[in-house]
Write a structure and sequence with these properties.
The complex is a heterodimer of chains A (248) and B (220).
Chain A (H helix, E strand, L loop, with lengths): L2 E7 L8 E7 L8 H14 L22 E2 L2 E2 L21 E5 L8 E3 L2 E2 L2 H10 L20 H11 L6 H5 L6 H12 L8 H14 L10 H5 L7 H16 L1
Parallel strand pairs in A: 1-5
Antiparallel strand pairs in A: 1-2, 3-4, 3-5, 6-7
Helix pairs in contact in A: 2-5, 2-6, 3-5, 5-6, 5-8, 6-8
Chain B lengths: L1 H5 L1 H31 L1 H13 L1 H32 L15 H4 L1 H29 L9 H8 L3 H28 L7 H30 L1
Helix pairs in contact in B: 2-3, 2-4, 2-8, 2-9, 6-8, 8-9
Classes of the chains: A alpha+beta (248), B mainly alpha (220).
Chain lengths: 248, 220
């Protein structure tokens, strides 16, 4: 395959970025998208140019490191996958591909396609945990009876890998799908009840402090989420926050 | 609770509550207007009651105006906040692949509705206030129907009226279910909400348009 790439290049957070055109040849349709970028970077290095910086780690759709806004969509044209799971067979020979970083004020660009997603870490630190006695008397989680439906919904919410596609694709740069998933995965389980009130209040406060936008229920986040996290998690977070506000 | 309404979710909830209040008002307005198609006397009777009842005039009307203002002002505040939350815009965005036109353009459909409401106030509400509270014309319980059909004599006015209601339908097609989601509606009601939202969002604006078209052709 022969492709024209239009890649966002930005030296650092302070400088303005712009699209740079690259022509690339001999791309196999069986390559992953990140492997195609590896090929490009090898060529750039051989020419003595600065390679394109992009995030990646596990390359099997688990870690949530890879991002990339490809041809106007978070994680590219396919559904329920991360960028590392996207294959070049989804494109045609001669295509022009736009590659941009995930954009939101809360996610400043560090370099090229690499963004700072530590805002998500700070939201998690604010309440995305349960306190467990680890002194040797820890109760086996499997010994606590949990309704199958609740367990399934909690697991579905917990599959969120925090890749930030939801924020990137949202026209308001809202992080409510991420926070909704993190609140839901604990609020549905008995282990999460003790800290339920403070959790949702603290996580929503931190989300607002980070400068994310307001959710207007467009549903774009749900469509682009590589793990299919449902909007129901946002509705559940809304209910949890209302309950918590009455309790407080 | 004060902290709650300052949070992004609280603002979203207050927007949803004001939307539901306005949707209830719109339904009531439609039910009154539709009587004009069937019975001149019934329309005059209800309109006279609404126009002279002190509870409607001095309690419900100010609440309604407050609800309208709140919904629009909060809509603009949220839009400004959302624009601030976005950094540099994407060079290429393919929004139609993951969301509806209605959901992405609520601010624009809302602005057309706001422009219509301003004209509607100038057209209907201000003359009414002038008639009753400035000029102190004598009470006439039979004037409402005549005034209504007079408004729909001009085809351009009827066209503009229908255009605004098409935008209202688009606004409601997203806004109806969105407001219930904001209130935390459980997913088990999702299908019922979707069906009811379609019926309401298309049925009510279409009804308003048909009333206007009916009176226009009745007078030609």
């Amino acid at each position: 395959m022969k492709l024209k790439l239009k890649i966002w290049r930005q030296k650092n957070t302070e400088e303005k970025g712009h699209l740079v055109d690259y022509d690339i040849e001999n791309i196999s349709p069986d390559m992953s998208f990140l492997e195609m970028l590896d090929v490009l970077n090898n060529e750039l290095i051989e020419k003595g140019e600065d390679p394109v910086a992009f995030d990646h780690d596990c390359r099997e759709g688990i870690c949530g490191s890879c991002s990339l806004f490809i041809n106007g969509r978070a994680h590219g044209p396919d559904k329920l996958i991360t960028t590392c799971q996207l294959h070049m067979r989804k494109f045609k020979d001669g295509d022009t591909i736009y590659i941009e970083p995930f954009r939101a004020k809360a996610f400043p660009v560090i370099k090229d396609l690499v963004i700072d997603r530590s805002a998500f870490d700070r939201i998690q630190h604010a309440g995305g945990y349960i306190s467990v006695n680890t002194s040797g008397n820890t109760q086996d989680a499997n010994s606590i009876p949990i309704n199958k439906n609740d367990a399934d919904m909690a697991f579905d919410a917990a599959t969120c890998i925090g890749c930030a596609a939801c924020v990137a694709t949202c026209k308001n740069s809202s992080a409510m799908l991420f926070v909704g998933a993190k609140v839901s995965q604990y609020s549905l389980l008995p282990q999460g009840q003790t800290e339920a009130t403070n959790r949702v209040v603290n996580m929503v406060n931190q989300m607002d402090l980070e400068g994310f936008g307001n959710c207007s229920n467009t549903g774009a986040c749900e469509v682009e989420c590589p793990k299919g996290i449902s909007l129901d998690n946002i509705a559940r977070m809304n209910r949890e926050l209302m309950k918590a506000s009455f309790r407080k | 609770m004060n902290t709650f309404f300052k949070s992004s979710i609280g603002k979203k909830l207050s927007m949803a509550l004001s939307a539901i209040f306005l949707m209830v008002f719109l339904l009531q307005h439609f039910l009154i207007n539709i009587t004009s198609v069937f019975s001149e006397s019934l329309f005059n009777l209800i309109s006279h009651f609404m126009g002279t009842n002190p509870i409607v005039q001095f309690l419900l009307q100010p609440i309604l105006i407050g609800g309208v203002l709140f919904h629009f002002i909060m809509g603009f505040i949220l839009e400004i906040e959302n624009r601030k939350a976005s950094s540099v815009g994407y060079v290429m965005v393919d929004g139609k692949k993951n969301s509806t036109w209605m959901s992405r353009n609520m601010i624009w459909s809302g602005m057309v509705i706001l422009a219509f409401l301003v004209l509607h106030f100038i057209d209907f509400w201000l003359p009414e206030i002038n008639y009753k509270y400035i000029e102190f014309f004598p009470d006439d319980p039979n004037r409402y129907y005549t005034e209504l059909i007079h408004k729909f004599e001009n085809p351009y006015r009827v066209g503009a009226y229908c255009f605004a209601f098409i935008l209202l339908a688009l606004h409601l097609l997203h806004g109806f279910s969105s407001s219930l989601k904001s209130l935390g509606a459980n997913k088990i009601y999702a299908h019922s909400i979707k069906v009811f939202a379609y019926i309401y969002s298309i049925g009510i604006p279409l009804g308003f348009c048909l009333i206007a078209i009916f009176h226009y052709y009745s007078n030609v």
